[in-house]
Specification:
Blueprint: E1 2-5, E2 11-15, H1 22-35, H2 50-62, E3 67-73, E4 76-84, E5 94-101, H3 110-124, E6 130-136, H4 140-148, E7 152-163, E8 166-176
Helix pairs in contact: 1-2
The structure holds coenzyme A.
């Protein structure tokens, strides 16, 4: 558990998830899915049962190359960031990064703080040597943050996302650590 401050001096707790957070994590993803179109899922599209979410938290907490960081204010989840990896010999060094902050807490520097936490965690887990992420090409705030953290653009996936009759390109970014 760690206390950090946003640019406007809000105190935020960063911590690992507990199995008892499962319901709130599901609710969080279903709400933020509707706040932004930049996530791979929309409002109420995070269809995971409480039991599956509890199992996922348990296995993340037992894993050496997966992690989840919750950011909370007054014990309410306001952001979640994750590193997800598989266990295969050829690919377990690759961590796929995900991050989402509730809209009202965006642009306060929390994204940078959470990215630095994830990157430090990857550097110290003894396994991860590459972090991958995908981001919509038209998401300048996220791209700016990732570049500031050292990520390089590695390619473009054309028409990867479809929203309301329009296709959007996705950028693949990577960081070798
Ligand atoms: C993307 C996200 C994680 C960034 O976190 P954040 O806390 O808002 O970002 P930060 O405040 O740490 O940093 C953002 C940086 O981008 C800059 N920025 C903001 N809007 C920008 C824009 N339109 N163009 C360029 N830079 C921009 C900010 O100035 C800031 O840089 P600075 O600290 O040097 O001033 C967060 O906004 C979020 O969750 N958004 C919704 C979901 C999402 O897009 N997730 C990522 C999916 S890949």
């Amino acid at each position: 558990m760690k206390m950090v401050s946003t640019k406007n001096n809000l105190s935020v707790v960063l911590r690992s998830p507990k199995e008892s957070d499962a319901k709130e994590i599901i609710e969080f993803y279903n709400i933020v899915g509707g706040e932004t179109t930049y996530l791979s899922f929309g409002a109420d599209e995070y269809k995971v049962s409480i039991e599956d979410q509890e199992n996922s938290i348990k296995s993340v907490n037992e894993s050496d190359n997966n992690t989840m960081i919750l950011a909370t204010i007054n014990d309410k989840i306001i952001a979640i960031s994750t590193i997800s990896s598989n266990q295969k010999k050829k690919g377990k060094h690759v961590g796929t990064l995900g991050i989402v902050i509730k809209e009202e807490y965006c642009n306060l520097g929390l994204g940078k703080i959470m990215m630095d936490e994830l990157i430090d965690w990857c550097k110290s887990n003894g396994i991860t040597s590459r972090i991958s992420l995908t981001v919509r090409k038209d998401n300048p705030r996220a791209i700016e943050l990732y570049k500031k953290c050292g990520f390089e653009v590695e390619g473009i996936l054309k028409n990867e996302t479809y929203i309301d009759g329009e296709f959007f390109d996705t950028m693949v970014m990577g960081l070798i650590i």
